[in-house]
Structures are given as structure tokens and as C-alpha cells.
Amino acid sequence: MSIKPLDERVLIKPTEPETRTASGIYLPEGAAEKPMTGTIVAMGPGKLNDDGSRTPLTLKKGDTVIYGKYAGSEVDIKGVEHKICRASELLGVIE
Fold this sequence. Notes:
This protein is mainly β. It is built from no helices and 8 strands.
């Protein structure tokens, strides 16, 4: 199964949550915070304008992005958790 996002939406694979603190203490699974960064796996063609043209996205596949804690919708693809959200919900690109 593959998913192709529509319009200005992007499919993001979240980064793995940290399992250890900076001091080396292992965190239980329930205590780890959800990641707010991820890598763009797929993206739509861009926003559809009123005149029928499309505004292309400034992002590209493979970009590492930061998104809001409650942004987008979670989807499960072949047992791997992903997020689909609008490009406008993204907060920035990590370079």
C-alpha cells in the first residue's frame, strides 16, 4: 500500500522517540515524548488556486521538518506510523 497526498498535504515519517536521557537513564515507553520532527516521504502537487492553477510546494521529499504537537492525522502504513498534514501546519525545515 502506498499513499499519495492530495493538494498541499505532505506525508511525514516521524523520527524515533528518544529512549535515553542525556545522562544515560533509559526511559520507559510511556514516558517518552512524541517526536515533533520527521522526514517528508511523499507530497501532493501543491495548492489548487481558484483559477485552476497550482502553487507548488517549497518543500521536497527527504526534507526534515518540525510540526506542531497536534498537527495532522496519524496513519499506519505497513505497521509504521506516519503523519499526513497540510504544508501550512509545518513550522520549519531543519537544515
